[in-house]
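Mods, move this if it's the wrong board.
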Amino acid sequence: MSLVGKKAPSFKAKAVIKDQFLEDLSLSRFLGKYVVFFFYPLDFTFVCPTELHAFEEKLKEFEKRNAEVIGCSVDSCFSHAAWLNTPKAKGGIQGVSYPILSDINKSIARSFQVLNEEEGIAYRGLFLIDKEGVIRHQLVNDLPLGRSVDEVLRLLDALIFHEKNGDVCPANWKQGMKAMKPTEKGVIEYFQ
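Not the wrong board. Structure tokens:
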């Protein structure tokens, strides 16, 4: 079942940002900003650090677009902190500076419908949430399939463009490309 078009499920959870522990991070804290909220299966695994570093490498691009990046897994804050203190060359995520939530009771993954109940871990779910707290994009990958951070930026650009202009973004649209009016005439003009 898709959550697109619905208010993002609310939560308050413990999180780690660099070396600080936060007791109650919530999505409501970010109203007025876009949020890229992503789940990953577990700390100290294999595909996961590549994704967390990929988001960090593009963090300034997200910030330019008034977007916050938040990661989440079923690990404890203590595990997150240990992983944050492990160098990249040793499979760690040292240098990652955005919040990483602890969903140790699995309630957040369950509410976002990305919990693999059999394994007790989250699939690679990603949610693009608008400034009003509504989910505008949802992507869920199986455990071995890493995500494209460039695609997340492209979708964020498309959402921002649509909100500002009212035009819709056709397949493979990128910032600076031609968009179209959401009408029959608009699609005809687009193809001409």
